[in-house]
Amino acid sequence: MSKLLTVFGATGQQGGSLINHILNHPTLSKTYKLRGITRDVTKPAAVALNEKGVETVKVIECIDGNYLTNVAFIDCYQQADMDDKSSLKDAVVGSYGVFAVTNFWEKASADVEIAQGKAMADAAVAAGASFIIWSSLPHISKITGGKLTSVRHFDSKAVVEEYIRTLPIQSTFYMAGFYMQNMLTVLKPTQKPDGSITFSQPWSLKTRLPLIDITNTGVYLAPVLLDPSAYNGTRLTCATAFYTQEEMVDTWTSVTGKKVTFTEALPGGSWGGLSPQMLQVAKDTQGLMREWEYYGPTGPEDLKWMLARVEREEELTSWEEFVRANEPWFEGV
Hints:
This protein is an alpha/beta fold and 333 residues long. It has 13 helices and 15 strands. It has helices at residues 13-24, 28-31, 44-51, 85-92, 110-126, 140-143, 152-164, 217-226, 245-256, 276-284, 286-292, 299-307, 319-325; strands at 3-8, 32-38, 55-61, 67-73, 76-81, 97-100, 131-135, 170-176, 178-179, 190-191, 197-201, 208-212, 234-238, 241-244, 260-264. A 9-stranded mixed β-sheet has the order 5-4-3-2-1-6-7-8-13, with helices on both faces. The chain starts with a strand and ends in an 8-residue tail after the last helix.
């Protein structure tokens, strides 16, 4: 008999990838039935999930800022406040496992993200779930010994992780690297008036980023879903590889045939299409990337450990494969 896995953010990048991987996995598709939680059950991605047999749960935002869940159990509708343990329990009722993810940038508030994360974890425990996978990130304030305390969207997830570790439930922590998808949008290289193409970042040419194609989320989490107890209490450092900025621009150049150069954005400067809040965080992380890197000093070894445990490492998208798959990059240049 299949077990119920509830996936928050079902049509988002992480949750959507996880669902698609399970549906197409020969063992996981038989092991789990899926309940997806999304903001809009009528949009094409949610409808497509329903057609594949995924039960959908609609999440809406109220005028007063509270998050409510309108749970669609075929012909039964209930509401659950994300900050109310007893009502949120209905969203995960009957779940064997829960994948929980939040979006810091919706409110750009650490307090909101921490409250939401704790509420989901409490609901999983109250519903009697056997395990939870929390989308976490490193605690930068602790890694840097208090030297860098402003990377709130990392620290807030880490605070939720610390809380989950105190709960009576098996838990695993998915730590995604730097999204390759960022380079398609807010961090895409720009064309200057003279026609040259520049990739600008607030760190040096030799700085390494752990790049992940976020659609590979399911590849990293498959081992956990196959044997949750084996990964209880484990952090999963997830990326294809560490790439320097030099390697990134060289790949763009070789694949597209257009010369792409790297420019280090100096403190006080601006880059990309970042929102004011994101821009400030990017500036604050300059020291992090230069001295401690994205995951801290153990990142490279932790990634090596993770890559040894994915079922088929060749399923992970390399930076070159990602660039080729998303051509054309510089139309008209």
